[in-house]
């Protein structure tokens, strides 16, 4: 594993975990302290020699870089080191390809891989290229590269069309939920923070759970009830530092579930300590901004408190007074979290006084679907209703206001 320390203390722990998930064992690491990576070879010449010696001594057959490499850097490193070189983006794409199970997930991963590889295709055909300039230098290598690029672009266009169609279906489903006025809660946050475990604890649904990054790629939506009110919860792909832009772009339709939710539960691993929490939160906020959910209402949920002592939890509470502390594994704190969620939605509701004329039972039924805290009494001209309505639904009953 290789990385550049820009003065922030580069730790390759996360890259090591990503490699483990991809089925690769890390046998060593080399980090160079510099402001920016070398534009040609990532490392300086001296550090490159040191890296060569480390590769020989350890018997490593692959070098993984903690940053995304430019195609030029990747080619030069491979030529200098004599072993294949991959970057962080390639590792994440490999994990995504392994974890995508639905048709939509596979389309999204293929799109991201093609866009990533398009810039790197030149290196695949160097053995066919003919050097030189002028007449007679256009050879089979160049035509093969162009053919491959054209095929890749055609496939990218095809995948985007297919994903557009899937997106339409998803928007139809979303519209139905919105028409039913059931509050939508999205689970977002760092990968492997326990979002799927939390979803299972809240909804009781049997969702796939795994102790590895990016276990969940395909969005899962489940309904649940709390104190008589209905809610819908969606779990989707986790975030990570330096999440490749190709993935955010390819998974935009999926991530839109988060952007259009009524409340985001930002799930963070409490056992990573205060510095780790801040790092995970910053990475999550960055992706939320990128998908247009930067201003969405959110609640920070610090999960995995079962891994901490009571004293450590209390110390974190002082630093994060507005966060909810839970252990999705043991169920501790789940009830408190649901109370906060219910209260948050209640605060978004407006009190109304309505008079529903007799004979308009359908309007009364419609009201019961979206209102909370309903009190009713029969009067001479109809049913007088005192209730609380979501502010976005008040307009539907303006004609009944008294």
Structure overview:
- The protein has helices at 13-21, 45-58, 71-81, 88-99, 103-118, 140-179, 195-203, 245-250, 252-259, 273-290, 310-319, 334-347, 361-370, and strands at residues 2-5, 30-33, 63-65, 85-87, 184-189, 220-226, 229-235, 263-269, 298-303, 324-325, 349-357, 372-378, 382-390.
- With 402 residues, the protein is α/β, with parallel strands linked by helices.
- It folds into four domains: 2-94, GTPase HflX, N-terminal domain (Rossmann fold, 3-Layer(aba) Sandwich), CATH 3.40.50.11060; 100-162, no CATH class; 182-346, Rossmann fold (3-Layer(aba) Sandwich), CATH 3.40.50.300; 349-400, Alpha-Beta Plaits.
- Strands 6-7-5-8-9-10 form a six-stranded mixed sheet, with helices on both faces. It has a three-stranded antiparallel sheet with strand order 11-13-12.
- Helix 11 links the parallel strand 9 and strand 10.
- The longest helix has 40 residues, at 140-179.
- The radius of gyration is 27 Å and the shape is elongated.
- Mean pLDDT is 82; it is low at 123-139.
Summary?
By secondary structure, the protein is α/β, with parallel strands linked by helices. Helix content is 44%, strand content 18%.
Give the helix/strand class: alpha/beta
Helicity level, as a percent range?
A: 40-55%
Count of helical stretches: 13
The tally of strands reads 13
Shape, please? Answer: elongated
The N- and C-terminal alpha carbons lie at a distance of: 69 Å
The CATH architecture of the largest domain is 3-Layer(aba) Sandwich
What number of domains?
Answer: 4
Secondary-structure element order, as H and E? EHEHEHEHHHEHEEHHEHEHEHEHEE
Report the biggest beta sheet as strand number plus sense, adding barrel if it closes: 6 strands, mixed
CATH superfamily of the largest domain: P-loop containing nucleotide triphosphate hydrolases
CATH C-level category of the largest domain: Alpha Beta
Rg from C-alpha positions?
27 Å
What is the averaged pLDDT score? 82
List segments where confidence is low: pLDDT < 50 over at least 5 consecutive residues.
123-139
Strand order, largest beta sheet: 6-7-5-8-9-10
CATH topology of the largest domain: Rossmann fold
Strand content: 15-25%
């Amino acid at each position: 594993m290789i990385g550049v320390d820009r003065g922030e203390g580069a730790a390759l722990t996360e890259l090591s975990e990503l490699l483990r998930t991809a089925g690769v064992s890390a046998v060593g690491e080399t980090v160079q302290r510099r402001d920016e990576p070398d534009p040609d070879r990532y490392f300086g010449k001296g550090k490159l020699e040191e890296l060569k010696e480390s590769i020989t001594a350890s018997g490593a057959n692959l070098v993984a870089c903690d940053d995304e490499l430019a195609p030029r850097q990747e080619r030069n490193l491979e030529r200098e080191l004599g072993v294949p070189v991959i970057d962080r983006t390639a590792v994440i794409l490999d994990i995504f390809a392994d974890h995508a199970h639905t048709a939509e997930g596979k389309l999204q991963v293929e799109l991201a891989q093609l866009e990533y590889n398009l810039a790197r295709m030149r290196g695949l055909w160097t053995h066919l290229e003919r050097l030189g300039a002028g007449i007679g230098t256009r050879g089979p290598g160049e035509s093969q590269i162009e053919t491959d690029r054209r095929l890749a672009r055609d496939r990218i266009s095809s995948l985007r069309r297919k994903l557009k169609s899937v997106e339409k279906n998803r928007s139809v489903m979303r519209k139905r939920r919105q028409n039913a006025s059931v509050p939508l809660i999205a689970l977002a946050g760092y990968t492997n923070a326990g979002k799927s475990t939390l979803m299972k604890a809240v909804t009781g649904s049997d969702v796939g759970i795994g102790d590895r990054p990016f276990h969940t790629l395909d969005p899962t939506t489940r309904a649940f009830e709390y104190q008589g009110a209905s809610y819908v919860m969606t779990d989707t792909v986790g975030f990570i530092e330096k999440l490749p832009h190709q993935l955010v772009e390819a998974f935009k339709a999926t991530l839109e579930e988060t952007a259009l939710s009524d409340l985001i539960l930002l799930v963070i691993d409490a056992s990573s300590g205060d510095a780790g929490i801040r790092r995970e939160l910053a990475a999550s906020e960055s992706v939320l901004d990128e998908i247009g959910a930067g201003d969405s209402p959110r609640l920070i949920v610090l999960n995995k408190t079962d891994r901490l002592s009571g004293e450590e939890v209390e110390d974190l509470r002082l630093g994060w007074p507005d966060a909810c502390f839970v252990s999705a594994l043991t169920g501790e704190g789940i009830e408190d979290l649901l109370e906060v969620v219910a209260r948050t939605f209640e605060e978004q509701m407006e009190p109304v006084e309505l008079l529903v004329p007799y004979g308009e039972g359908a309007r009364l039924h419609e009201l019961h679907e979206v209102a909370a805290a309903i009190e009713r009494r029969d009067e001479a001209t109809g049913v007088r209703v005192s209730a609380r309505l979501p502010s976005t639904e008040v307009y539907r009953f303006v004609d009944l206001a008294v």
